[in-house]
């Protein structure tokens, strides 16, 4: 064979007089036995022909291998049957972990699997509660459990298989299915992980397990099936030749469960892979009794397609605390069919292009941008540059928890013992070391968390960023959704269901829309010369870039805020140039109209797609321009807003509206007047607005045409796709404002104002000193007031009708009514609205009776919930009291005192708040009431801000600001008003909001608030009026 090839080569060199190349994968390959002879002859042959032809020839250094190449290919000849690379395999494994309940167990398993080859790992006895899919850095974790600390199954799937996952179904806490469509395989692979009942289990439990398993296999019989897990059954060797489900290399004896398993597999035509491949007896058993006496094979991998499997083995040295061994099977990747016309040539010598940032690069970009006048081309040059930089400087995620040297030494020590596991004396030693490893991992995790928390608390005082950094749960997937009441688990179907739902949600509902009003091919609008606007300044661009938040997901272009803020000096002049070109020409980059939608669960059933809020991830470069436009439009739009609207406005707060509502209820109750209040709820408010009405609103409210056209172009060509674990199909956005766009809140408020301008409510509402208060707004949270229920019904009906004209639809099931009088049915569009005794409005509990009592109880409950969510800090014995104090003052105290500016506190309510804080202080320092420590001594140690001091300070200061405000807010009007046509009941009245203020500042306190210095002097007297009494007591 070699001689023949040499002759062929010699003839080719002589005839074609070209440089010869003998190649196999681009190199000279020779066997060790023929190396010298062949290389010598080949070199002599080529050198001789080189002298004749005049060509210089260089041979690659020969590489020693242990076999001859399959064939030699002369240069210039097309290899009709190219050599394929070595066949790659998928590794599927199963393991009974005994428990994976805590995060320490998961960290230990991660470390144990670090050097183990696997693509999919099925897990038995996870002992984790609930059904979840979480995505981590290196893998995807699925869990299914019904009882905490018992049973449970799941999967560990490498992230590179994420795009091939079709569905994950949890049948029970003993049975789960993973369907994956691997490339080049015609059928789907159904991987079934089981945890079977033991021999001692009741017969009914065993029957139920095999019944569920049988139904599952029958359902997926048309797929390639892998059935694996802990079967708690000893199959043993083949007892007769008819047991085709077993290979010739069975191990051990057969148990009662084993016989049932064999019969079950024969019934379903499945084969046990453990018995197919020959292994040593010591490499067959998968379970060992606690005392090391018995070793049996009870964990199996079974399939209906055995011919693709190349090996099944037991991992004997897995460094993990379990008495089970991992079983792993390998099967071949299906080779990709390559067309003979597209055979790839040798590309091993191609170098990878890397991009490094430098001032020279930016100077070149600026020159290219200045040389063109088209803003689209300018942006594409910049985008290409930024994308290349992102690729060259890709951020590598680091592990959240690094194991200490002490832990790693213990793991290595256990590894040495596992290699000698056959010795019984090592079993107890392994158990002791495993216990120490678990404790050490817990200690490492605790140390890391405390250091991170301490760093963030000292730096910014909050814990939000620290907890985000230390978040142990992976990125949660949506495990299933319901379609017409039936659950869907297929990943593709889930994505299609979400895409269909939001396609319908964002579809244009206005039949009169003129689709030809905007050119759908080019994102260009002709700007009239009658709308001059000032050029965008570099300082505006720099301010907008610096205002961008970091650690936020980028849009489809993957240009992050971190990159933009890190290169703000270089980007500012470039973006200023591009933005001004856009203002001049009206051309918009098409990339800005594209967005990815992520789904955030709000509340309610997680399987209902309507309970997810869509958040649009869009280009961060567009957001910079949007913020610049927003800063220019906000003064114009805010001038058009009445005092009833407090949402997204400078100088307005939720406290303004909360105080207004509470004062109305307080004074109507005191003067025995009837009031009816309606809390309006819109269904998908931000996602339902008609685009045409947005443009009409901007025109009517005096927005320059240039800005309107820019926004109009973005929305006219807007497209989105649902981003779950993979990306869905694109669909058009024909209505709604994009949640995530800086302009969206202002656009919504502007349209809402247009609705109310069309309502004739001048004679409706409550008479407040001659002015009519008929509603309040905070973004889409609306509240209506009336004294008569029939008029309130008329108001809601008219609001509903006008809202529907712009695309808003009222959610009548969530729209509630409240009254301090007789409940009279209020009907809107044929639906009777529900009366409630309590309603949470802007985070505060609103009730017609005992409003402050209920609110204080709710605040205390919220405070304790927050306290125990920060248990890791507040109960830690390793963190100092100063850090705990800072955490309490910045995280817990605001939860307890939210809305305290509107409270009318009695002495008993003040005592409630003080007792709550003292209980938290005792919990922080670790004492009990029976220890009989004085509260003053505990306070001297903790030095926490006194809650009553904080409540009084905030109420006094806010009252002064509110009474001096010049916006004409309703909170000031209702504070100065009382119902003159009402009559109070006889006897002592309930405590009013202004009573404690009047006790300090006198009956003319409203006049004193106008004198800021005098009001400031009275603050100390107001705050300390109760403190002295408490000190005496």
From TrEMBL:
Which residues are in the Reverse transcriptase domain?
581-846
Organism listed in the record:
Euphydryas editha (Edith's checkerspot)
Alphabetical list of InterPro entries matching this protein? DNA/RNA_pol_sf, Endo/exonu/phosph_ase_sf, Endo/exonuclease/phosphatase, Rev_trsase/Diguanyl_cyclase, RT_dom
The beginning of the lineage is: Eukaryota, Metazoa, Ecdysozoa, Arthropoda, Hexapoda
Please cite one Gene Ontology biological process associated with this protein. DNA biosynthetic process
PROSITE patterns with a match to the protein in the record: RT_POL (PS50878)
- What PANTHER family does UniProt report for this protein, alphabetically? REVERSE TRANSCRIPTASE DOMAIN-CONTAINING PROTEIN (PTHR47027), REVERSE TRANSCRIPTASE-LIKE PROTEIN WITH RNA-DIRECTED DNA POLYMERASE DOMAIN (PTHR47027:SF20)
List the protein's name. Answer: Reverse transcriptase domain-containing protein
MF terms from GO for this chain are:
catalytic activity
Origin, by domain of life? Eukaryota
């Amino acid at each position: 064979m070699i001689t023949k090839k040499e002759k062929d080569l010699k003839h080719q060199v002589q005839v074609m007089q070209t440089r010869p190349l003998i190649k196999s994968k681009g190199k000279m390959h020779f066997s060790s036995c023929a190396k010298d002879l062949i290389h010598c002859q080949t070199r002599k042959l080529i050198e001789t022909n080189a002298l004749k032809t005049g060509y210089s020839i260089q041979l690659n250094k020969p590489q020693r291998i242990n076999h001859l190449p399959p064939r030699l290919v002369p240069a210039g000849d097309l290899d009709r049957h190219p050599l394929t690379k070595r066949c790659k395999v998928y590794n599927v494994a199963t393991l009974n972990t005994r428990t994976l309940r805590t995060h320490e167990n998961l960290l230990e398993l991660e470390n144990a699997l670090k050097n183990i080859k696997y693509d999919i790992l099925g897990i038995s006895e996870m002992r984790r509660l609930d059904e979840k899919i979480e995505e981590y850095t290196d893998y995807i974790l699925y869990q299914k459990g019904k009882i905490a600390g018992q049973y449970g199954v799941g999967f560990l799937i490498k992230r590179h298989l994420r795009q091939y996952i079709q569905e994950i179904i949890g049948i029970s806490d003993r049975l789960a299915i993973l369907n994956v469509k691997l490339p080049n395989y015609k059928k789907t692979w159904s991987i079934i992980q089981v945890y079977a009942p033991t021999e001692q289990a009741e017969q009914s439990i065993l029957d139920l397990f095999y019944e569920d398993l049988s139904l599952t296999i029958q359902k997926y019989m048309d797929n390639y099936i892998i059935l694996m897990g802990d079967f708690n059954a000893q199959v043993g060797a083949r007892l007769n030749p008819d047991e085709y489900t077993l290979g010739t290399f069975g191990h051990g004896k057969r148990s009662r469960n084993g016989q049932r398993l064999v019969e079950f597999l024969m019934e379903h035509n499945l084969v046990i892979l453990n018995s197919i491949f020959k292994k040593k007896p010591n490499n067959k058993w998968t379970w060992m009794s606690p005392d090391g006496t018995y070793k049996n094979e009870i964990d199996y991998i079974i399939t209906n397609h055995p011919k693709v499997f190349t090996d099944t083995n037991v991992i004997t040295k897995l460094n993990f605390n379990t008495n089970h061994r991992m079983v792993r099977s390998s099967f071949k990747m299906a080779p990709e069919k390559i067309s003979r016309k597209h055979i790839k040539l040798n590309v091993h010598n191609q170098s990878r292009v890397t991009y490094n940032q430098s001032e020279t690069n930016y100077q070149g970009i600026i020159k290219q941008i200045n040389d063109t006048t088209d803003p689209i081309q300018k942006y594409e040059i910049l985008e290409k540059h930024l994308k290349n930089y992102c690729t060259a400087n890709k951020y590598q995620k680091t592990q959240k928890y690094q194991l200490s040297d002490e832990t790693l030494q213990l793991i290595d020590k256990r590894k040495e013992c596992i290699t000698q596991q056959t010795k019984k004396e090592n079993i107890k030693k392994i158990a002791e070391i495993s216990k120490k490893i678990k404790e050490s991992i817990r200690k490492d995790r605790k140390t890391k968390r405390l250091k991170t928390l301490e760093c963030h608390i000292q730096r910014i005082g909050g814990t939000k960023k620290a907890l985000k950094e230390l978040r142990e749960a992976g990125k949660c997937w949506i495990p299933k959704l319901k379609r017409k009441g039936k659950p869907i688990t297929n990943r593709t179907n889930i994505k299609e269901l979400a895409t269909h739902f939001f396609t319908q949600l964002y579809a244009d509902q206005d039949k009169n829309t003129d689709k030809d009003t905007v050119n759908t091919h080019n994102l260009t609008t002709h700007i009239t010369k009658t709308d001059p606007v000032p050029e965008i300044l570099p300082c505006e661009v720099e301010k907008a870039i610096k205002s961008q938040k970091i650690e936020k997901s980028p849009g489809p272009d993957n240009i992050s805020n971190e990159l933009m803020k890190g290169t703000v000096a270089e980007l500012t002049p470039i973006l200023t140039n591009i933005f001004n070109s856009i203002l001049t020409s009206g051309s918009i980059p098409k990339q800005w109209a594209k967005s990815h939608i992520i789904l955030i669960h709000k509340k309610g059933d997680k399987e209902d797609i309507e309970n997810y809020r869509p958040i649009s991830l869009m280009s961060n470069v567009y957001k910079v321009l949007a913020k610049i436009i927003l800063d220019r439009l906000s003064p114009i739009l805010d001038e058009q807003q009445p005092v009833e609207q407090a949402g997204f406005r400078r100088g307005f707060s939720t406290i303004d509206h909360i105080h207004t509502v509470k004062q109305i209820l307080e004074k109507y109750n005191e003067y025995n007047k009837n009031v009816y209040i309606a809390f309006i709820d819109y269904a998908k408010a931000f996602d339902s607005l008609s685009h045409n009405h947005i443009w009409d609103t901007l025109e009517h409210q005096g927005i320059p045409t240039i800005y309107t056209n820019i926004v109009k172009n973005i929305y006219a060509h807007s497209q989105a796709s649902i981003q779950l674990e993979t990306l869905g199909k694109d669909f058009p956005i024909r209505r709604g404002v994009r949640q995530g766009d800086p302009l969206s809140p202002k656009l919504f408020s502007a349209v809402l104002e247009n609705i109310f301008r069309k309502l004739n409510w001048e004679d409706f509402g409550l008479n407040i000193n001659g002015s009519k208060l008929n509603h309040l707004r905070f973004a889409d949270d609306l509240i209506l007031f009336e004294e008569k229920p029939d008029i309130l019904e008329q108001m809601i009906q008219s609001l509903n009708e006008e809202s529907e004209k712009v695309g808003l639809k009222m959610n009548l099931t969530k729209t509630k009514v409240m009254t301090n009088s007789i409940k009279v049915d209020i009907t809107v569009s044929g639906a009777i609205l529900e009366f409630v005794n309590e309603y949470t409005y802007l985070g505060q509990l609103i009730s017609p009776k005992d409003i402050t009592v209920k609110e204080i109880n709710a605040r205390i409950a919220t405070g304790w919930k927050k306290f125990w969510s920060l248990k890791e800090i507040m109960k830690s014995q390793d963190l100092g009291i100063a850090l705990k104090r800072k955490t309490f003052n910045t995280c817990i105290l605001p939860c307890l005192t939210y809305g305290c500016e509107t409270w009318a506190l009695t002495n008993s309510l003040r005592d409630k708040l003080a007792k709550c804080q003292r209980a938290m202080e005792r919990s922080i320092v670790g004492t009990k009431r029976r220890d009989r420590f004085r509260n003053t001594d505990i306070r001297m140690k903790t030095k926490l801000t006194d809650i009553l001091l904080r409540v009084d300070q905030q109420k006094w200061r806010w009252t002064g600001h509110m009474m001096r405000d010049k916006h004409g807010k309703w909170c000031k009007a209702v504070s100065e008003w009382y119902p003159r046509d009402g009559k109070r009941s006889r006897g002592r009245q309930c405590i009013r909001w202004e009573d404690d203020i009047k006790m300090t500042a006198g009956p003319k306190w409203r006049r004193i608030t106008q004198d800021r210095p005098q009001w400031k002097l009275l603050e100390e007297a107001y705050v300390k009026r109760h403190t002295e009494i408490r000190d005496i007591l």
